[in-house]
Amino acid sequence: MLTDGGIETDLIFNRGVDLPEFAAFPLLDTDEGRAALRAYFIEYVDLAVRAQVPLLLETPTWRANADHATGLGYDTAALDRVNRAAVDFLAAIAQERTAELVSWQVGGITGPRGDGYLSAGGVDPAEAADYHLPQLSSFAAAGASRATVLTMTDVGEAVGFAQAAATAGLPAVIGFTVETDGRLPDGSTLAAAVDAVDAAAAPTYFLVNCAHPTHITAALDGGAWQQRVGGLRVNASTMSHAELDEMEVLDDGDPVQLAADQAPLLDAFPNIEVIGGCCGTDVRHVAAMWGVS
């Protein structure tokens, strides 16, 4: 399935949209914001039609959880409303083009409780499950087909997310991020993280996001865990997370080269189901990944 690119960086750097707290979900609450989101997502609908491949539209709700949303004026009831609205919004966009699309789904996106670039320092799975359950329940109530957490840095939080998704009745996809050496921000290997989560609360599959393909390549060891990776959302830039944090201009790399750099990962991860982008990518990069000019 084809999914979108780096929504926050595209909106900020390419489209001039202000996103306080790096949060796109408040755009759903204004006419101007919904227009910006529609213009963004419709490009991927068009791409999926051109490529004639299944489409996975994923909600702009990476920051729509309690810790990040409180400062934006969203309480529990408002978060429930906006997370449900995000699913409905994308479903309506896809339904307009149902006759042209091979197939489509809408998935709910969430992010870590803390910073997606820094180690969470050890998270209690039960606490994480309680934290993520409200957002996942909102997705389920709105009819989302799955729940994906992106930029996860901690095994305990990933276990809790998988447990919460099971409680909400949603298939769970866990997206870990890695540094330039192929390891999670806390220094653990991707292999160890996948195996630990699988042993405690196996999700539907895993995904790797917010890292350049060459960073992910550093994690490869030929182990059985590679069979459990079903999605890729790579960064356009080869920079480290720390370097990207300091950037005031977008490093969008080269779309064709990014697709070439990602190609070996499609062999290393034979069960890939979802391909899209993360920071610095836009529809050009995703088109190159799918071989569409």
TrEMBL record:
Sorted UniProt keywords: Metal-binding, Methyltransferase, Transferase, Zinc
A Pfam family that the UniProt record links to this protein: S-methyl_trans
Residue stretches making up the Hcy-binding domain: 1-293
Gene Ontology biological process terms in this record: methylation
Positions with a binding annotation for Zn(2+): C210, C278, C279
CC cofactor: Zn(2+)
GO-annotated molecular function: metal ion binding; methyltransferase activity
Descriptive protein name: Homocysteine S-methyltransferase
Species whose genome carries this gene: Nocardioides humilatus
